[in-house]
Amino acid sequence: MATAIRIKFSRKGPVSYLGHLDVLRYFQKAIIRAGIDIRYSEGFNPHQILSFAYPLGVSMETEGDYCDIEVNSFDSIQDIVDSLNQVMNEGISVISASIVPDDKLNAMASVAMAEYNVVLNDISIVNEDIINSYLSRETIEIEKEGKKGEIKKVDIKEGILELKKNNDMLNMKLLSGSTLNIKPAQVVETLCKYENIDVNIQKIIRVEIYQSSDDDEYIPLGQF
Amino acid sequence: MKKEDRILALDHDTLMSIEKPARYIGGELNSINKAKSDIRLRFCMCFPDIYEIGMSHLGISILYGMMNSYDDVWCERVFSPWTDLDKVLREKNIPLFALESQDPVKDFDFLGITLQYEMCYTNVLQILDLSMIPIYQRDRGMDEKLGKYPIVIGGGPCIYNAEPIADFFDIFYIGEGETMYRALFDLYEESKEKGLTRKEFLVEAAKLRGIYVPCLYDVKYNEDNTIKSMNPIVEGIPATVKKEVVKELDDVFFPTKPIVPFIRATQDRIVLEVQRGCIRGCRFCQAGQIYKPIRTRSVDKLMEYAAELVKSTGYDEMSLSSLSTSDYPDLEELLNKLIDLCAEKKMNISLPSLRIDAFSLDVMSKVQDVRKTSLTFAPEAGSQRMRNVINKGLTKDNILSGATMAFQGGWNKVKLYFMLGLPFETDEDIKEIMYLCNDIAAAYYEAVPKEKRMGRVQVSASTSFFIPKPFTAFQWAPMNNMQQFIDKAELTKKTMLEQLNKKSISYKWHEAGTSVVEGVFARGDRRISDAIYYAYRNGCLFDAWTEEYKHDVWMDAFEKYGAGLDFYIFRERNVDEILPWDILDIGVNKSYLVREWENARNEKVTENCKDKCAGCGAFTYKCGICPR
């Protein structure tokens, strides 16, 4: 009987310029090097049962991203974390792992919210007044291209759960799911547009990805 | 310094503005970072094409691992920046940088460039230019102290006639890299310590085995443009430079911890080099001559490497590398062991093209999906007469019986490779390409009863245009011009349409334009350097990429510089003529090549090295298959 295991990992530095598929391929190889008894799909070209919660954009760093694997056997959760970290390349490391209970959704389906720290070229421009003014707007609209190429306006206001300064960075908690999926760049872009300021993003760090708990609270994706 | 703390040479905005920024960040698994204070010599290894192609090359991986095994040396890598980054580097005046340290290439002691195909020559100029190293060797300060600019050293198969790019290089390394780099590095470190000039160092280097320093040889020409003489201009350096070979493959360095790229390289798998050299002696083939004599690795050694490589890389696929894997003496044992290893590790094995027989079909059906894969034959020529001319020991019977066996085993796709424009070729020889394809299709309908057929058989033929190469029996042969090439491809196509089984046959041919340029580079002399420089300055880059290739600029360049296309490619050379590559000695004698040229004319087959020594001369290396 296979066991589903959720792995929490971080990435920082130059490896942040890898695309999502490169990260996937990186983990496939790391799992082989670590000697993890991962389950493979059936068929002529079997592949590892491995899936990621939320694709990492090119250049995005993370302190809390997740992937799920299924293993046929394992000694302990700590052993999986250690054996992966022994074969990791600098810049990517495994923080923790946990067994996914049978009644829980897979990582990708569980994503409800994500927290980011955003480094701007000049954070001093964004003061408390500007943030308050931005958040007290009736609507915060972005333009999106529809399926047929038509431009439509989407209100992202209710997707911005929190926006505050965190030392030299802009900290934000954004809804991330199938209904409303907000990206940090959309927040910074609308902040500039509505508040008439000019800043640009130097780095985005994903701090944590959350799921909704049974009592409708946001808890990290690796907590059950 | 830790890989994750390295400061990249390109800033965030630049990286986000170009295609695949991961090409330029370095820091991959098993890449090597060293402390600058611990080392005495910095080597930058270059494959002058994009990262994905360069990182697929085994030779670079071998030398990278070997050089970094030396405590005093740090070897890094650089590849051709794609046109998007090329533009940014020029606009912002950013010097080209090595991937590991992200330091400018111009600060290195050596820039080593591997020359795997002629069409990369303008990319070599781009590397030098973007590195801010003077493009012409003569401008690098011959009388200044060593260290002002890197020593630019070339290697790889193109250096067997490096004359067209001789003006851009300080050194060519003739032969296999494993043998002489240590001695060259010792000499460099010592010369730098003594405060020698670039020229003083180069003169000493030219005394080492396998080291060719083109600027130390003077070339004189006759009025008819042929070479009159090539002589050393300083005392004590050899008149000809002899190729270096590794005598025992089991004893040399093999990279068991190769770099694993983050982005998908063209060869994204473990590569095991099973042997070097080839016993076959096909008369068009340069690799068959320049890598002589054939030397093999033992099964035990290969299995040891395979196991280590699985652990150190995590690849899920493995492949074998050699010129003709079917000739590996212990192939059955090796493949059976590798198949077991791959099954245990849930890996795929990617088979090289094998001679089709009961054994290879059995192996193929074990590791491949028979319905999806195709069989490959490389008859190279359509008629038996032409196959005798080129010494390709493959008969129509071999092909038809192999194909029949495969059809009975469930295959229904066949790929065939041919060449057009071979010496002594007639229209009838060309037509026979399609007669053979038709016969193969017919063999399918004969071998497989109607009720067992899975649709129609697919016979895919493709032709490339023959380009005479140095150190082959055909080095004296005239090459076809573009119109002849196109006419021959049209004739092939027309013949296809006349065949009974034409619906089962498809035919593709390669571009003719690049063949002409490649032909000039293959057998050109030093006067071609200026044409390459001109073409580069007029926008030629990535010439191996069809969409980037600029035919008109090249024709213009050959019009302005050098001795012209008629001289370099369309005439038949006399066997007494001094050839630009006569400066090199690859062990294979000219008298043998002359004999082979005559045998070709007489349609006479020469036996392979295993069956009978043809006395080519490579036995002077006293290794491999050669009789002692």
What does this structure look like?
The complex is a heterodimer of chains A (about 220) and B (about 625). With about 220 residues, chain A is of the alpha+beta class. Chain A has helices spanning about 20-35, 75-85, 105-110, 130-135, 185-195, and strands at about 5-10, 50, 60-70, 90-100, 115-120, 140-145, 150-155, 160-165, 170-175, 200-210, 220. Chain A has 5 helices and 11 strands. In chain A, the strands form 2 sheets. In chain A, strands 1, 2, 3, 4, 5, 8, 9, 10 and 11 form a 9-stranded mixed β-sheet that branches. A two-stranded antiparallel sheet of chain A has the order 6-7. In chain A, helix 1 packs across helix 2. The longest helix of chain A has 15 residues, at about 20-35. Chain A is elongated, with a radius of gyration of 19 Å. The mean pLDDT of chain A is about 95. Chain B has helices at about 10-15, 50-55, 60-70, 85-90, 120-130, 180-195, 200-205, 285-290, 300-315, 330-345, 360-365, 385-390, 395-410, 425-445, 480-495, 515-525, 530-535, 550-560, 565-570, 590-600; strands spanning about 40-45, 75-80, 110-115, 150-155, 170-175, 210, 215-220, 225-230, 240, 270-275, 275, 295, 315-320, 350, 375-380, 415-420, 460-465, 505-510, 585. Chain B contains 20 helices and 19 strands. Chain B is an alpha/beta fold and about 625 residues long. In chain B, helix 14 runs parallel beside helix 15 (about 480-495). Classes of the chains: A alpha+beta (about 220), B alpha/beta (about 625). At the A-B interface, helix 1 of A face helix 1 and helix 9 of B.
CATH class of the largest domain in chain A: Alpha Beta
Shape of chain A: elongated
Low-confidence stretches of chain B: none
Alpha-beta content class of chain A? alpha+beta
The most extensive contact between chains is: A-B, 28 and 31 residues
How big is the Rg of chain B?
25 Å
Instruction: Note the overall shape of chain B.
Output: globular
